[in-house]
Automatic annotation (TrEMBL):
This is alpha-1,2-Mannosidase. It comes from Phyllachora maydis. Ca(2+) binds at residue 582. Gene3D superfamilies: 1.50.10.10. Belongs to the glycosyl hydrolase 47 family.
Amino acid sequence: MTISPALLVHMVAPPRKFRVYVLTAVVVTCFLLYQRRSLCCWLPKPRGGGPLKKPDLRFQKASFDWAAVPEHFPAQKLAQLPKRPSRKLPRVQHDFSSYRDDATTETRRRAVRGVFTRSWTSYKKLAWLHDELRPVSGEPNDPFGGWAATLVDNLDTLWIMGLEAEFYEAAAEAVQIDWNRTSESGINMFETTIRHLGGLLSAYDLSGEGALLAKAQELGDMLYKAFDTPNRMPGFWLKFEDVMNGAQVAGSNDPSASPGSLSLEFTHLAQHTGEAKYYDAVDRISQFLQRTQEESRMPGIWPTLINFHDQTVSEQVMFSLGGLADSLYEYLLKMYILLGGGEDASKYKAMYLRAMETVISHILFRPMLPDQKDVLFAGDVLVHNENGILQPDGQHLSCFLGGMFALGGKMFDVAQHVDIGARLTKGCAWAYSAFPTGLMPEIFGLLDCQKPQLAACEWDENRWRAESGQQEQQQQGLPKGFRHVRDPKYQLRPEAAESLFVMYRVTGDPAYRETAWTMFQSIVKYTETALAYSTIADVAVKGETKKTDSMESFWMAETLKYLFLIFCPPETISLDNYVLTTEAHPFRL
């Protein structure tokens, strides 16, 4: 029997009063779900967005147009931006199809966001539009040109945490920054690129607000002038007067991570604007690295300091994946991802995998520990002869390696790298737990097991006492296994939290979440001030810690972002849809 649609509706339609109740319930439920969504984490929204009426962001041009400044050493031919291939990159995130949020996870997420909003509120009240807030004195601080580094660096964090009103308030200021208004005679290329340019590009990726991209390109045009040198290699500093006079030259002893960590931001700017010059600028650095990879005293990796002026790498003797070198290696992997893994990106894969061979063979070490815990660290190597001398010193800055190895292992299907990533991540977590504050020092020394294949070794009490010094051990209260703590500060750094986040997303192991929560609690307990959170002078003290009145922009832009994301549903900033810069700015793939 055939029933007409009209008759069917009449037969099944409930009474009008019931429909009103149902409609009311649906409206209330949707409102509560929206409120919950905005608190939980950012998720992609359909066109039209939520109930917030977005303000009109108006891009304001800077008072000086750097794009109009003529170049003294222009590029003769530009490398073209590679097109993304049609094939998809391998999946790197764990299969979270059965994932369900729970009350504990939401409580932790709320706690992290609460610490962020406390920090942000104090910055807004006491240091608005300055680079940083001093979290003890409440004074502003401007180490990065006075261009509101904390504000720009945290645009994407505001968006991810669902703080949309705060995001638009900050974005309205960001798009009016005048790069010509600064008391500085020059700027740090690396810091300005990763904090400001990366922050603006990421905020554009997340919000789609064109004014943010316009401001990013305006800044990119200024930063591009650093490449106006005789060999097109940028200096460590962009000095404004030298730009005008054609006096810029590349440095002869610059950190390898400085020019080596500009590629993601400049390439992504090129992807959004279609301007090949931005990609060409960093591609020349990549070509230099590719040419010289086997020419250093430790073939496969580059020295910590590089002569970019003469484009040589054979004279320097220090090799490390810690400070001054770290993000160079991270960006080899992430450039491959950003470019979609096509043929034009193959050089980045080759350089990365070759570098990791050397890192595993010569830089990584397993420490001698009382419980023989299976963890790894990255040391420094001095190469005065063919073999080199390993200095088994750990750095907080090198704690990003766990996440990098895991991400690369999944991307290139190298299971050994995922395992190494886990051992490195657990090494930094162990270093946190070893001290009374539950926090890890900036730089410290360990004892190398000196076994092949990063194998375990028996604990040798006599060796530890001899190499750490019994008197020094008593004075410093060194935990067993540590030779020294050269720099006992904790600077609110993000690298350990970063690796915990990546390891969780790659493996799905909830233990990484538990470690992150323990870490978060220790950070808050020992760094909290009356206003926000501060670097502390010594992680080894018992009781009250000495606050040094410093809160860099990466505290909210990276550390709290990673700690928030690890407790978010895994589709939030999925590693299959975004690549995160060294400053934790997600770039959409």
